[in-house]
Each structure stands twice: as structure tokens, then as C-alpha cells.
Amino acid sequence: MTALLEAHDLTRSFEVSQGMFKARRKLHAVNGISLDIRKGEVLGIVGESGCGKSTLARMLLGLLPPTEGGITLDGTDIRSLGRKGMARRVQPVFQDPYSSLNPRRTVASIVALPLEVHGIGTAAERRKQALGILDKVGLPQRFADRYPRELSGGQRQRVAIARALVMNPEVVVCDEPTSALDVSVQSQILNLLMDLRRDLGLTYVFISHNLAVVEHIATRVAVMYLGRVVELAETEALFRTPRHPYTKALLASVLTPEPGQGIPETGLGLAFPDPLNPPSGCPFHPRCPARISQCSTTVPRLLQFGRDAVACHLHDAGQSIPSPSDDGAT
Ligand code: SF4
Ligand code: MG
């Protein structure tokens, strides 16, 4: 598989004020991530709340510029494509179908809006195209003139998916697309996404805190911790033989079913560290049951093992992937 979307040493920091004196601090939400998304794959990205998944998603969509590093789509720097150029090729599906749909527009006009914004077709042609996409996502024509408030959560998420697909994109970045839905509806939406990928030849980036969901849909998985990718592997290999102690802990734990409701229970004893004050060395070391002496002083590099990669000193025998910004600073 060839790389379609590539992140090169991607970093995003935010200035935040902290404490009584409102001291300005730098938060590294994403810290030196290099990642390739291959044509036709479903790259799952997992990690606890606050690990930088959504920031990474917004950068991959071209909605948030990186502080350092860059992204290419089919070899072209996405900055040269602009927002509109990106929107034709990379589209989002976000978590909350309740807030992401305009309540004053009908379903057909929500789905047709991207075409309108890009000046594609006449109003009649746009409506026809919207109806065709609604059919593809399993919403019969009678839904076309309803308003979002008249739909269930699952139906709204189908509308959001239809809106993403109307531009005929190559990549769809899904950020927790099923997390706000009931469990029974979640699997319907996952199955729909998988059918659409097969029928339309789509590539997905699929972000979730829910490992079971990712195992179901992803072909490859990247595990994130405090802004970094700590393990990358084919889905089956990751779930059968995880290499990174954090991946092992995630797999052994029961994650909370809802995002945004505090720190998932990882069984690791210690809470997720403060991203404003990240630990030295391996960011996972205060919680790691397998840590060794250099873990508190040296940041482990992401090392390649065949097609997989892991960032952990226990696996230092792999082949190093040079990363210019991986100098130990967080
Ligand atoms: Fe644990 Fe050390 Fe590996 Fe980090 S580098 S995951 S602390 S063993
Ligand atoms: Mg998020």
C-alpha cells in the first residue's frame, strides 16, 4: 500500500496560562509524530483522553496548522492545497452528531451544503446528488426534508457521514464517530463505515478511546501517549502481541465508555500525567511497571520492527527511525 497522507515530524503546541499568576506555559499536544496513512487502510488511533488524538485529527484535516513539521497528501504539501482543496479530498466525521448539524437546515440541504460552498452544480443537481448519498448511508428519501431534531442519534450520524461523502473524498478522518451513540447503534454505524469503505474505496483515519471499536474496524493501529505515537502495528498483531508496556496496560484494562468523563481506568495505578508538566525521559515511566534505569532520563525513539514500530527502551535493538526533534525535550 502506498502512503496517501503523510505526517512528517508533526508538532502542535498551545500557549496556556496556569496558576495564580497566570504563567504562560507551553502545552505540546502533539509532539513530533511521523506517520503514513496508506491508501485503502483504516488507521486506528487510540489513547486516553488528552493524549493529542483530536489535535492530530484536526491537523490531518488541514483545520489546524502544525507548530512544526508538515503534512503531505499524495506527495503535495497540504498548505499549498488550501482549506477548499483539502475539503475536496479529506473530510471529517466528528463525535457529536447533535451539535455538528445545523438545526435550521433540512437533511438534504445539510448534505448538499459542501457542494454549494464549492460552487458545484445547480441547486437541483446538488439535491439529486444529496439524495443519492443519503441512499448510500441507509437513509430513505423521506428523510430528505426533515430537520436534525426529528432524527435519532444514529440517523444524525448517517447524515454527517453523507455530508462527508458528498464531496467524494479520498480520506475520511473519523474522530470518535460512534462514542455518543448507544452500543447497538454504534455497531450499525461501524458496519456502515466498513461497507462504504469497501464500496467507495475510501481510506479512514479512525480515532477512538475505545479499543474494542478500533479492533473491529482498523487494519493498523497507532497507540498515542502524551502527544507521541508509542506503538504502531497491524491490528491483529497489536492485539495479540502488544510490544509497548502502555499498549499492554490498555489491553488489560477496561476503558470508560464515554470520552470527556475524566481519566479512563487503565489499572495503572497512577493518574494520567499533567500534559503541562510531562515526565522526563519516557513520558510513560511514572506509570510503567517495566521501567528500567534510563527510562526516567532518555526519551525512547520510535524503532521499526519490520512493518511495526515501538518506542520503548526494552525494544532498543530495533532499527532507529531518525527524528530531528526527538531530542528529549517535551
Ligand atoms: Fe516503560 Fe521504559 Fe519502555 Fe517507557 S521506555 S514504556 S518506562 S520500559
Ligand atoms: Mg478527543
Labels describing this entry:
single chain, alpha/beta, Rossmann fold, 9-stranded mixed beta sheet, 25% strand, globular, binds iron/sulfur cluster, binds magnesium ion
Could you describe the 3D structure shown?
The chain starts with a strand and ends in a 10-residue tail after the last strand. A hairpin with a 4-residue loop joins strand 1 (3-18) and strand 2 (23-38). It is globular and about 65 Å long. The strands form two sheets. The chain has a nine-stranded mixed beta sheet, sandwiched between helices. Strands 2-1-4-5 form a four-stranded antiparallel beta sheet. It has a single domain (3-320), classed as P-loop containing nucleotide triphosphate hydrolases (Rossmann fold). It has helices at residues 53-60, 82-89, 107-117, 123-136, 153-165, 183-200, 211-217, 235-240, 245-252; strands at 3-18, 23-38, 42-46, 68-73, 76-77, 90-93, 171-175, 203-208, 220-225, 228-234, 303-305, 308-310, 319-320. It is of the alpha/beta class and 330 residues long. Helix 5 runs parallel beside helix 6. Iron/sulfur cluster binds at residues 244-245, 282, 284-285, 288, 290-292, 295, 300, 312-314.
